[in-house]
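Researcher: Structure prediction, please.
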Amino acid sequence: MGSAEEREGSGSRGRVGYHPATQASPEAEPPGVVTVCDVGPRDGLQNETVNLSPELRAQLCDMVAGAGVPRIEAASFVNPRLVPQMAGAEEVMATVGRRRGTVLAGLVLNERGLERALEARVDEVHYAFPVTDTFARRNQNTTVEGGLETGKRLVARCRALSMRITVTLSVAFGCPFEGRVEPAHVLRVAERVMEEPPDELTLADTIGVAVPSQVKELTAGALRLGAVVGGHFHNTRNTGLANAAAALEAGATVLDASVGGTGGCPFAPRATGNIPTEDLVYMLHGMGIPTGIDLDRLIQVSLWLGDQLGKELPALLPRAGDFAPVSRTRASRAD
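Model: Predicted structure follows.
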């Protein structure tokens, strides 16, 4: 586990002031923070047909960190027989470089995964469970109630160790098996989560069906529960970046993304990639929200990953290129 100094130092890099109510002019000094978390080494690769070795996945983490991304979901401590793309999580964590200002997170689904993650010295734990019973059974062999109880135990264990933990509510906007998921149901589950509050609560559009109005409603509702809210959006129906902007406007302070726009869930039919980190960063910089991320270096990481996977990735910025009059001017004005 990273030292307290490293975790403390990681809180400032890539975190920037932002509050929509104060954005009347580019010169405003708004309160709040926005953190970009790249989930490419985990969510981005778990549904790919090409399995990258632990060494290459560690290299991907190093390259993403080198571009200035402050938080990276580096590995998944799940059963490798079920998700072979994530085999060798311990090797990834042992190989990746540790740098001040970069948080390396690990996904866990149960107590065994948590113990593996702790032994591998992750800086932060991410736990996810679905808000529908059908998806919970197919994805994690549990129920919503079972996922809630597991989450409470994991949060309590992490708190006892002074380890940060994020809880993610999967299929929060729609389920491939049960269809529409009512916001009231999601917020009831979120309220139960907050009985043993994690450091952050992330709302995940696992299959990419959300629209901005839904995102604003759920984000605002989770904030009323006292949660620090994050958003995790897939671009399956080309609404991902609009949803990310809507989450920010509603008060979310963390956004997940995947370099190159890779991603998808092995247990969610037709689910495609996450919003691309480079496209998200371009949007944030153009909105006057600096991130501390080097966009040019991030584009090079995306192109490198495409070469490793043998295909052109979904992200648009590597194809179209940066447009500095927007991304550089507005971001520097907000610094």
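Model: Confidence is low (pLDDT under 50) at residues 1-32.
Researcher: Thanks, that helps.
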